[in-house]
Design a protein that fits this description.
Layout (H helix, E strand, L loop, with lengths): L5 H14 L6 H9 L6 H14 L1 H20 L2 H19 L1
Helix pairs in contact: 1-4, 2-5, 3-4
């Protein structure tokens, strides 16, 4: 994995389960946030708001992680952004097996 992606992937692994709990397809939610050239903060904050209503103590450390991932994603070049999308898609495919 690219060193540029490692910090983001680690934060997603740490905070993603709480943020993406109770969604139909977590991979679709992740892809929705990273599909464009900029991280979709509005979508992420909507997920965070749902988490904060369900589990306020889990939500507190998740918000800075979301903002950090968003800033890092926006700082990636197009190739690295595309690699992240492919990683998410590959993870989905591995989970379906």
């Amino acid at each position: 994995m690219s060193p540029a992606l490692q910090p983001m992937v680690q934060r997603l692994r740490t905070h993603g389960p709480a943020l993406l709990a109770r969604v139909d397809d977590p991979h679709d939610e992740l892809l929705a946030m990273v599909w464009g050239p900029r991280f979709d903060r509005e979508h992420a904050l909507g997920l965070w708001a749902r988490l904060s209503r369900r589990q306020p103590t889990e939500a507190v450390p998740t918000l800075p992680a979301i903002l950090s991932v968003a800033d890092r994603f926006d700082g990636l070049d197009q190739g690295a952004q595309q690699r992240l999308r492919r990683l998410i898609q590959r993870h989905r495919a591995l989970g379906a097996v």
